[in-house]
Task: inverse folding
């Protein structure tokens, strides 16, 4: 019934906006606007065929967004987001959903563009605040799983028996006190579970009331929208899901090309000035990224599940670390010869980054398969790789301009007889390359995650790297977490 009511609401708004339009066209558009955002890309053709059967010969009316489409293009440029047609459609679907629902969920896996979707729409609508049908938009973001239920909704202090307002209650109250025409989106950026979402039912239905244990009831204003940014709805109840509009974001529909294009826009100015670098990176990306991710998904096994766009961004981060040497400062100038030298090393550095991003999340058997797959394609990239061992056993020495074994990058190890047995750490192939990559990331401001089973040396090698192998300006703070 709630779904039917949403269609009726959408049709009513369209009728008020275009009173002279054929009602069958308005109902057709209302059905599409309410339902299409929640479908997977494979289900949309089925839905369109059903609509064609219901409305034979009826065309969908042209939609006038009043300058919003042009503003979205400007906002995409502002956030360095590519104007992919499917992404733009999802932004417009979010806008349509906001018009008929005061509670909605943006659902999809990590990297699907959920955050970029609402940020671009917020920026675009705010930039059109001078026009009649748009207002400035404020977004208040909180992670409901990062705090307790009491901290979220409020609780009675056991010492003083006083009522303590929760974060959400305070946030919603502040939004209701705003008497300006500005819109407020309260964004819950975190997993949905039955513990906290069920308390939102009175907010999400037609009551629009947040009821607290203290007896206080906060009524939402017409300018407020409750949004949820979640990966899935596996533990959400039908009562909650039926109260919300849905916009599903699918990473597969975007592909990897937009990430590459956006990253190329962030190259250091000195490198970006050389057109050959951009052309070479584009060619290498087109040649390897899609094929490598396809091979990973269909032929290899991952102990820790990842998503394609995050692996590609990991590749970009490794290259960013190498490009940091070519960023100019007031006291440091980079001659063009240095950039040309970097361009000549680019295929080797790209292959190294590919191995330790897309190729590194699989098992040992998977690495052997990836090694064979990559070696078949290296000649096309102009990379001369040593024939023996795996591609994982070598690093690229930028000074010598050649591939060298990881164990050749460290001095010969000898045991210090003054150390106790538990202090002795013998370097191995795994420990050397793990410490190198972790230190490379950390010293360039990148985050590092080191997963693995118990007893594989994660803590020992990480502690040794943090203690002895980082520059002196780095200090270590150790925090212990329990699962």
Result:
């Amino acid at each position: 019934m709630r779904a039917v009511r949403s269609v009726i609401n959408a049709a009513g708004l369209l009728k008020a906006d275009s009173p002279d339009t054929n009602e069958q066209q308005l109902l057709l558009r209302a059905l599409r606007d309410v339902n299409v955002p929640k479908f997977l890309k494979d289900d949309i053709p089925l839905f369109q065929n059903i609509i064609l059967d219901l409305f034979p010969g009826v065309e969908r009316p042209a939609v006038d967004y009043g300058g919003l489409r042009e503003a979205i293009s400007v906002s995409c440029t502002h956030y360095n987001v590519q104007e992919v047609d499917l992404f733009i459609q999802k932004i417009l679907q979010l806008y349509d959903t906001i018009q008929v629902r005061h509670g909605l969920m943006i659902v999809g896996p990590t990297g699907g563009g959920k955050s970029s979707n609402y940020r671009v729409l917020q920026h675009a609508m705010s930039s059109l605040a001078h026009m009649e049908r748009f207002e400035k938009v404020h977004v208040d973001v909180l992670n409901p799983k990062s705090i307790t239920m009491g901290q979220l909704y409020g609780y009675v202090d056991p010492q003083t028996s006083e009522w303590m307002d929760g974060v959400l209650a305070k946030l919603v109250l502040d939004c209701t006190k705003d008497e300006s025409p500005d819109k407020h989106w309260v964004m819950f950026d975190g997993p949905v579970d039955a513990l906290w979402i069920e308390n939102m039912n009175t907010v999400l239905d037609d009551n629009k009331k947040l009821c607290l244990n203290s007896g206080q009831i906060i009524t939402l204003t017409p300018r407020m929208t409750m949004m949820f940014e979640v990966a899935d709805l596996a533990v959400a109840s039908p009562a909650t899901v039926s109260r919300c509009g849905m916009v599903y974001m699918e990473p597969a529909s975007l592909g990897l090309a937009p990430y590459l294009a956006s990253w190329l826009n962030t190259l250091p100015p000195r490198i970006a000035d050389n057109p050959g670098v951009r052309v070479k990176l584009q060619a290498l990306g087109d040649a390897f990224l899609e094929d490598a991710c396809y091979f990973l998904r269909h032929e290899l096994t991952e102990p820790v599940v990842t998503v394609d766009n995050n692996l590609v961004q990991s590749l970009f981060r490794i290259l960013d670390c190498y490009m940091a040497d070519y960023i100019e400062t007031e006291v440091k100038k980079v001659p063009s010869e240095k950039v040309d030298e970097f361009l000549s090393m680019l295929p080797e550095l790209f292959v190294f980054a590919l191995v330790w991003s897309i190729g590194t999340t699989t098992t040992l058997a998977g690495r052997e398969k990836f090694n064979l797959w990559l070696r078949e394609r290296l000649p096309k990239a102009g990379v001369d790789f040593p024939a023996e061992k795996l591609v994982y056993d070598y690093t690229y020495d930028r000074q010598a301009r050649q591939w060298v074994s990881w164990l050749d990058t460290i001095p010969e190890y000898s045991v210090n007889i003054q150390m106790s047995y538990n202090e002795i750490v013998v370097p191995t192939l795994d420990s050397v390359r793990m410490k190198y990559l972790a230190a490379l990331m950390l010293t360039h401001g990148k985050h590092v995650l080191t997963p693995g089973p118990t007893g594989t040396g994660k803590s020992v090698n990480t502690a040794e790297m943090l203690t002895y192998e980082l520059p002196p300006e780095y200090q270590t703070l150790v925090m212990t977490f329990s699962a």
User: Anything to note?
Assistant: The mean pLDDT is 87. The chain has three domains: 2-54, 69-253, 255-409. Residues 69-253 form a domain with the Rossmann fold fold (CATH 3.40.50.300). The CA atoms of residues 302 and 323 lie 29 Å apart.
